[in-house]
Hints:
Chain A: It comes from Paracoccus salipaludis. The complex is a heterodimer. Chain A is 29% helix and 36% strand. Chain A is extended, with a radius of gyration of 26 Å. By secondary structure, chain A is α+β, with helices and mostly antiparallel strands. A 6-stranded mixed sheet of chain A has the order 2-12-11-4-7-8. In chain A, a hairpin with a 2-residue loop joins strand 5 and strand 6. The N and C termini of chain A lie far apart (77 Å). Chain B has one domain. In chain B, strands 1-2 form a two-stranded antiparallel sheet. In chain B, strands 3-4 form a two-stranded antiparallel ribbon. In chain B, a hairpin with a 6-residue loop joins strand 1 and strand 2. Classes of the chains: A alpha+beta, B mainly alpha. Chains A and B meet through strand 5, strand 6, helix 5, helix 6 and helix 7 of A and strand 1, helix 3, helix 5, helix 8 and helix 9 of B.
Amino acid sequence: xxxxxxxxxxxxxxPLAAAGQNAPEAPGTTQPSPPLIRGPAxxxxxxxxxxxxxxxxxxxxxxxxxxxxxxxxxxYGAIRRDQPPPAVPPGIIVTVEGPxxxxxxxxxxxxxxxxxxxxxxxxxxxxxxxVVASSAPLKExxxxxxxxxxxxxxxxxxxxxxGGLDVEDTTPFTEALLRLRTESGRYRVDEGAVRVLEDxxxxxxxxxxxxxxEGDYRARIFLLREGRVIDSDxxxxxxxxxxxxxxxxxxxxxxxxxxxxxxLALAMVAGLIASAAFxxxxxx
Amino acid sequence: MQIFLPxxxxxxxxxxxxxxxxxxxxxxxxxxxxxxxxxxxxLFFIGIPPAIAVATGANQxxxxxxxxVLAHLRRKTVDIRMGLVLLAGGIAGSALGVGVFNxxxxxxxxxxxxxLSYVVFLGLIGLTxxxxxxxxxxASRSAAPPRRRLHEHSWVHRxxxxxxxxxxxxxxxxxxxxxVGLAVGVLAAVMxxxxxxIMVPAMIYLLGMPTKVxxxxxxxxxAAVSAFTTLMHAVSSNTxxxxxxxxxxxxxxxxxxxxxxxxxxxxAEQLRVLLALLVLAVCGRLALDLVLRPDDIFSLxxx
Lengths: 284, 303
């Protein structure tokens, strides 16, 4: 729904919309007329978008240590352009997503007075973590069709990856997944969290929670004009355990028997020490 | 102080975990129960994934019950022979129970079966213990201590393969203790607990063991079965979080020693009334969860 668009934005966009179709996403296709009124028409067939993204990350690795309590990643960049910027400020959307995993959503119903899981839907893959940060409310800056094409808002990020559904109506289940993950802070939409300076520089501070899973994360950055994505960029982020955390994790996975024995030995030694200490205390 | 757990992959407050371990250790020393039926739900509550809570809970139970066993061994209140017979049944039962658990997990009903088992077993045991121990308490107050027979003779004593259990003053068939061990092993694996809250009453009322040796012997069996379970979980599903276990253990071993110390001062009937009330409280809470409309009828499970 674009009903909520402010009159000012509409007025500013009108002449541009009338000028013709916008820059298509595919790089090979030509552009009938550039969206900028002031800019001269470029005759060459492979037309680069008039504005391009240059982006970077404060860190492309997140190390999970024993005292890890979450982390903050700064995603920054600039918009490169040959002409002076248009009057309307650009829109920037940043998404950060974690590795996808299969998840089963189960629904309870009352059977004979008690609540029992009766139905379940297995969603083939849903990101474990997903954040969307934007420079303005999504409804105002993002065209629904573009949202679908680039899978930007959280519901689309899930459906993009869902597979193997066998219940007639899966909507309540996918909605429940979204709601539960949003409540637990795993999915988040931060409208206005991307700050744009002088219509050129932008930065987004994305907070990563403490309960991160290890794996390959990625950040996507979208540059928008008139609701359409005119350029995008993808940057990988590696999240991994380090030090003692990494050593224990590796041992538990690759040498489970010895890891198990180590856990038991630790438990028994602790029991012995406590027993001896208390006897000493009581005597003393 | 926040600490990140390597296997559970969550960050939690270290002091909360030490305190949780301490409470559960206290129960262990006082009543001879491993405390698994308390630690497992408490870990769920602070956000530890259920599979890791169950497996790590078992590891914690090893520490607190081992510490308790040492204290009881010193006071010679462990019937090692009986413990070994129970253990033989327990390990067979645990292996069987793990199979049942995996089956239930595949059909998505594990939570329901676990809760129902808790409600049924805790309810039955709690009520039986409360009635019996209150009766004993009243009787001991109103009149001179009644002349108590060593134990009642029932069908249990007519079975073959009799064995002498000197520490318990019993001469009974090995079949009942083997079956008790087996049943506790199955329930322990399915419910993710040590099984002491079932075994203690079974030893008192079914086998007729004196309360004095029941707690030490129960702890002996729990320590061994939990060790077996911990190893099974570590090997089959990598769900033991050693960092989480260490924090729980630090609190647990201290709690167990304090509990054993207090337990020696309280009277057996009083201890049993307290344990009965605790068992009924946990039972009531779980029953409510099953009957009341849940906060959210949807739930997520990995895989």
